[in-house]
Amino acid sequence: AQSVTQLGSHVSVSEGALVLLRCNYSSSVPPYLFWYVQYPNQGLQLLLKYTTGATLVKGINGFEAEFNKSQTSFHLRKPSVHISDTAEYFCAVGDTVRRALTFGSGTRLQVQP
Amino acid sequence: GAGVSQTPSNKVTEKGKYVELRCDPISGHTALYWYRQSLGQGPEFLIYFQGTGAADDSGLPNDRFFAVRPEGSVSTLKIQRTERGDSAVYLCASSLQRDQPQHFGDGTRLSIL
Fold first, then answer.
1. Euclidean distance between the first and the last CA atom of chain B, given in angstroms as a whole number
2. Is the Cβ of B53 closer than 8 Å to some Cβ of chain A?
3. Domain range list for chain A
4. A108 to chain B: nearest residue by CA?
5. What is the mean pLDDT of residues A77-86?
6. CATH pick for A3-112 out of 3.40.50.720, 2.60.40.10, 2.50.20.20, 3.30.70.260
7. Higher-confidence residue: A43 or A13?
8. For chain A, which residues lie within 8 Å of any Cβ of chain B, measuring from their own Cβ?
9. Which ranges of chain B have pLDDT less than 70?
10. CA B27 remoteness from chain centre
11. d(CA B22, CA B28)
12. Number of CB atoms found within 10 A of residue A17's CB
């Protein structure tokens, strides 16, 4: 069985600050890991994904995440956030056995001017 | 190009009624997924199609829920005898192949009165 835990349901930072959104996963087989962003009244947009290979993954809009197998983590970060990054962020895990994704409960990021 | 299209965007109906939600995936995408997102939660898997067949329907909550994809493209999620607890945003996603990232539609917001 798979599961995802996102620590911190709400995060508020100032524009230009570094932001770190935490994600820990559980999977009985090698995982695929994803971060999605959801703007109000919209579907989910893929930010980045990890399947195999390099553990530091770069995505769109300046976001990056690092896969850490020993800590079963896939934290998302951005060195300098913009007001337009205000949205909800979801971490998800999948694998080659079960095609469906298991999502965390999300972290709402609020970027203050 | 065109993304995943879901119709209607909003649906309000009375308890006990039957509803159909439609998903038009990205052209050429063989894999199609339905998820349900309750307020303040991450999406939860309902059913996955590979081509015309339901490869995994383990997420359907009960036998009131059913989905079809008769020609391997458009899919319809059907809910019989709706209950107030069925109120949620129903998201559809598609991917080019089984192991490719999923692309999401904007969802159908279903409200059961």
1. 37
2. no
3. 3-112
4. B40
5. 96
6. 2.60.40.10
7. A13
8. 4, 32, 34, 36, 41-46, 49, 51, 90, 92, 96, 98-106
9. 1, 98-99
10. 17
11. 17
12. 13
